[in-house]
Amino acid sequence: MHYGGKIITGLVIFLGLVSMPFWFNIGGSYEEPKVELPKNAKVCVAPTQDMRTNHMKLLDEWRDMALREGKRTYISAKGDKYTISLQNTCMQCHTSKEQFCDKCHVDASVTPYCWDCHVPPKEAK
Amino acid sequence: MKQSRRNFLKFAGLSAAGLCIAPTAVMASGGSSGGAQYEVNSNHLQAKRWAMVVDTRKLNTEEAIEALAETCHHIHNVPSIDSNQDIKWLWSGTYGEVFPEQENNFPSEAQEKRRFPLLCNHCEHPSCVRVCPTKATFVRPDGIVAMDYHRCIGCRYCMAACPYGSRSFNFMDPRPHLDMDNINKKFPTRMRGVVEKCNFCVERLAVGEMPACAEESGGAIVFGDLQDPDSNVRKALRENFTIRRKPAAGTEPGVYYII
Q1: Predicted pLDDT at A99
Q2: pLDDT at A13 over 80
Q3: Which ipTM value was assigned to this complex?
Q4: pLDDT tens, B132-165?
């Protein structure tokens, strides 16, 4: 192979640079963010694991149902009825945006624009 | 066992059929919501076609309309911005402004002095809905022209299309112009870059309440079902001479004015 040595060194350097983030994080430990769970409620509209993975899908479904279909009552799999509202239903239990929503969103660098319109509950200072 | 061509084709056919059926089966088993259902609120108000009749013999002063507008703007968190970037859901105008095509060169004194309340007309054939590229604005089955602010991209085609100037654009974040300690916590604000307008109080109808302006007006504004011959709206239309704004635009407004 012509220039074999140069090509292979180049490739090694390139791969090293590309995988830099992985080298930097080797051995580091990831700590799951500790969200504040509601004190005044025991059950959510869906099981915890389901909410953890699918809350964004549920919220998306909720906004279409409430706004576009006019169906503002949600009947959970357990048969409980909830009024569809991020501001008025979700945030009645999860009373702190900073201690609940932001904890994971900041960690995962996700910035949904929910709170540009919806009014988060007042944070105690 | 030796794989025969016949066996291979059988297996391939079955796999293809399975691939076709699998996604539908997954969807049918509930998907993300896992057996949850949605329904309309039990106490919501229903109509085939919501409409409004404004009695301008009773409601015609700047102050009276301003009071209604204040209530409306407060419960919907509409900011007041002291410039041409202001946002309005309910406002007032003179006869000439409201009915430009039906103006007379020698109007009666009463007519000349009167102010007329203005709001989104919730038209039967809304031109704003026709031009909206994202379907952010749409007609509900009950005739209300609603806005889905999640989908609005702020192109303002609807503003250009609306013959009544009923839509306002949020040129800036409205929150600095709202008294955030004193807003209606039950209703969201809007964000920068979306168009907004009166929504016939859909959120109040959903919980069994009449629109705020109709409730506050002391009978000067009647709200009801246009398709129901026995409704209060039809009664008001039957007993009085009414006109609508800009009939030539062909949008069939849902707001009628008793002159």
Answers
A1: 92
A2: yes
A3: 0.80
A4: 999 999 999 999 999 999 999 999 999 999 999 9
Judging contacts by C-beta atoms under 8 Å, the chain B residues touching residue A45 are: 36
Strand segments, DSSP code E, in A29-107 are: 73-75, 81-83
Structure tokens of A120? Answer: 């988060």
Pairing of strands B242-243, B221-225: unpaired
Q: How many residues does chain B have?
A: 259
CB B257 within 8 A of CB B56: yes
Q: Which residues of B touch A67 (CB under 8 A)?
A: 146, 148, 150
Partners of B34 on chain A (C-beta within 8 Å) are: 46, 50, 77
Cα B133 versus chain centre, distance: 17
Do B246 and B231 contact (CB within 8 A), yes or no? no
Q: Note whether A61 contacts B33, CB cutoff 8 Å.
A: yes
The candidate with the shortest Cα–Cα distance to B146, out of B92, B193, B201, B184, is B201
Residues with Cβ within 8 Å of B164's Cβ and at least 6 positions away in sequence, in order, are: B118, B120, B121, B245, B246, B253
Residue in A closest to B30 by C-alpha: A77
Residue with the two structure tokens 């209606």: B184
Residues 99-118 of A with CB under 8 A from B: 113, 116-118
CA neighbor of A86 nearest in space, from A54, A61, A107, A110:
A61
Q: What is the DSSP letter of A33?
A: -
| Mean pLDDT for all residues in chain B | 92
Burial of B133 (0-12, 13-18, 19+ CB in 10 A): exposed
The answer to whether the beta carbons of residues B71 and B213 sit under 8 Å apart is yes
Secondary structure E strands in A19-86: 73-75, 81-83
What digits encode the pLDDT tens for the residues B169-192? 999 999 999 999 999 999 999 999
Contact B42 A73 (CB under 8 A): yes
